[in-house]
Amino acid sequence: MRTFIIKANKAHTKADFKLKDLPGTSGRIDLLCRVLNSAFLLSHSFRKNVRVWLSLYGPPNPPKAIRFEGQGMKPKTLNPDELSTAKLIIKALKVGENLREPSKEIQVLPGIYVSNLTFEDIIRRTLKGATLYYLHEEGRPIERVNFSQNVAFVLGDHEGLTPEDEAFLSGIAEKVSIGRKSYLASHVVAYVNIFLDSITPPP
Ligand SMILES: C[S@@+](CC[C@H](N)C(=O)[O-])C[C@H]1O[C@@H](n2cnc3c(N)ncnc32)[C@H](O)[C@@H]1O
């Protein structure tokens, strides 16, 4: 199983943005759409062994968490175009709008869940079943890491993680790097997926 956790500190937690101007009005939900695309989609196929957590901390109701489970999602749910993925996020935010309980998850569609879980909650849950890594330019080169079957990767949005996020992760997530340049979050996810494919025997 591969888990990707993206902490989006500016991404809106209510569907109050314009689909026609996602970068300018949503706190960069366009970036999250591209991360989902890189995490799940293959050419004419779909990765069932992937889970993605979007941890949203923008206005007006942080935190919101949206969980995408490859095992449970119907392959036609996620499509390559950014707009239809943004509509899935909008649907999740609408379903979760009146949710008050801190840890209850509501199913939005098969394999897609919304909740008020915090970033820390997501990390604690993930640590129960996977080894956690923090994707960072200055981390250990990815080729030198011995990955187990169940791995989870935390990454930041366009602004990266805050010092508080980093302090929380220190000691529980090893920093891993795909190179010394700062790459787009969606490119990092695509690279990690392709790298893990290369070291995993085909089914
Ligand atoms: C667009 S980058 C954020 C850049 C931002 N200026 C910063 O200071 O983090 C988004 C995320 O991709 C991941 N990332 C970017 N380049 C990377 C690299 N070379 N190796 C590993 N992860 C990387 C990091 O988790 C980063 O927070």
3D architecture notes:
The protein is α/β, with parallel strands linked by helices. The chain has one domain: SPOUT methyltransferase, trefoil knot domain (Alpha/beta knot). 30% of the residues lie in helices and 26% in strands. An 8-stranded mixed beta sheet has the order 6-7-5-4-1-9-8-10, sandwiched between helices. Strands 2-3 form a two-stranded antiparallel ribbon. A hairpin with a 2-residue loop joins strand 6 and strand 7 (112-115). Helix 2 crosses helix 3 and helix 2 (29-40) packs parallel to helix 6 (185-199). The longest helix has 15 residues, at 185-199. It is globular, with a radius of gyration of 16 Å. The model has no long low-confidence stretch (mean pLDDT 96). Bound molecules: S-adenosylmethionine (SAM). The site of S-adenosylmethionine has 18 residues, from strand 8, strand 9 and helix 6.
